[in-house]
Design a protein that fits this description.
CATH class of the largest domain in chain A: Mainly Beta
Largest interface: A-B, 25 and 27 residues
Mean pLDDT of chain B: 90
Order of helices and strands of chain A: HEEEEHEEEEE
Strand content of chain B: 25-35%
Helix content of chain A: 10-25%
Shape of chain A: elongated
CATH superfamily of the largest domain in chain A: Lipid/polyisoprenoid-binding, YceI-like
Strand order of the largest sheet of chain A: 1-2-3-5-6-7-8-9
Strand order of the largest sheet of chain B: 2-3-4-6-5
Number of helices of chain B: 4
Oligomer: heterodimer
Low-confidence stretches of chain B: none
Low-confidence stretches of chain A: none
Structural class of chain A: alpha+beta
Shape of chain B: elongated
CATH topology of the largest domain in chain A: Lipocalin
CATH architecture of the largest domain in chain A: Beta Barrel
Strand content of chain A: over 45%
Distance between the termini of chain A: 49 Å
Number of helices of chain A: 2
Radius of gyration of chain A: 23 Å
Distance between the termini of chain B: 58 Å
Radius of gyration of chain B: 21 Å
Number of strands of chain B: 6
CATH superfamily of chain B: Nucleic acid-binding proteins
Chain lengths: 196, 138
């Protein structure tokens, strides 16, 4: 008799600990802010004459799981090209990085349930909409993103296509055939960390 | 005779112009080892200048080769593809974030947190940290 009481007492204690852990982990997920300072953005612009490609390895991104918000910031001078001349033209003539040193994106995930972040080896597709500010011009953009959990890390990837003319980035007449008005941007955020 | 000289000179000019254009078109971004720093500055001073007045600091440092002296507060090596060394007082919320030249990953040079170091890089601006690119150790 005495043993049975002890046993049920133990069980109760056990389940309350479990309940506590469960609740605690749920709130953890709900309040989580994930971020990286080393996100990757590459862009491609192709014409029959020339292929322009650049990479920026220092993208700052914050993903707020509680409010479904996402923010990016990237320094224009941090884009690296294979050819120095392209990089100089990109900074001086096209993006005018002395005047507009940053590009930013502020947006929201649409109706996303982030319980996936607590699970292993999952991938979900989410819709993102928000405002992209580039070259001093702000325009609404939408994109699809993939969020993946693997080996206890969260990563995200997305790509979108923008038109240079939307952001008043002018292509000089001489380069009309070398530079495409349409540019594809790829974003890769690996190993997002929890913000403390 | 005169015509021949003119023709040869023209050819030489055209040829050298061609070489110049070809070289200029294929020029790679300069390695920082051989470029002198425009400014020598302490990491904490640089951070506070950006934190206090970003626009002013941008005017001074954006796109320039600068040499920054400070204490290593963190080393971030991501899967041996991206090596970042953070400089400055670890109690401050920002650091000077030095993205090292890719050659440093191959070198496997050992960096120790807490050690003093001088790093030269191109200042690309300020996000959460002051960002330097293509960095080399001085």
């Amino acid at each position: 008799m005495c043993c049975r009481i002890k046993h049920t007492y133990k069980m109760k204690k056990h389940s309350s600990v479990l309940l506590f852990l469960l609740l605690f982990s749920v709130t953890l997920v709900a309040q989580k802010k994930l971020f990286t300072k080393t996100g990757l953005i590459t862009f491609n612009s192709k014409t029959s004459i020339e292929k322009i490609q650049a990479v920026n390895k220092k993208v700052l991104a914050v993903l707020d799981v509680a409010t479904n918000k996402i923010e990016f910031a990237v320094l224009i001078k941090g884009f690296e090209f294979e050819k120095a001349l392209m990089q100089e033209h990109f900074n001086e003539n096209y993006l005018e990085s002395d005047k507009f040193p940053k590009a930013t994106f502020k947006g929201k995930f649409d109706d996303t349930n982030f319980t996936i972040l607590a699970e292993e080896n999952k991938t979900v597709t989410v819709n993102i909409s928000g405002n992209l500010t580039l070259h001093g011009v702000t325009k609404p953009v939408t994109a699809k993103a993939l969020i993946t959990t693997k080996n206890k890390t969260v990563s995200a990837a997305s790509s979108l296509t923008i038109l240079l003319s939307d952001y008043s980035i002018k292509i000089p007449a001489v380069n009309k055939n070398n530079v495409n008005n349409q540019v594809q941007i790829n974003i890769n955020l690996a190993n997002l960390q929890e913000m403390k | 005779m005169n015509k021949r000289i003119v023709l040869i000179t023209l050819l030489i000019i055209l040829f050298s112009a061609g070489i110049y254009i070809y070289k200029e078109y294929n020029r790679k971004p300069a390695r920082l080892n051989n470029l002198p720093a425009v400014v020598n500055i302490n990491a904490d001073t640089l951070i506070s200048q950006f934190a206090l007045n970003e626009a002013e600091a941008n005017k001074k440092y954006l796109g320039k080769v600068i040499s920054v002296k400070g204490l290593i507060n963190k080393i971030d090596n991501q899967q041996d593809t991206l090596l970042t060394i953070l400089l400055g007082d670890s109690l401050l919320s920002s650091s000077v974030s030095c993205l090292m030249d890719s050659s440093y990953i191959k070198l496997k040079k050992v960096f120790t947190p807490g050690a003093q170091i001088t790093i030269k890089g191109i200042c690309t601006g300020y996000l959460m940290d002051v960002e330097l690119n293509r960095c080399v150790v001085e």
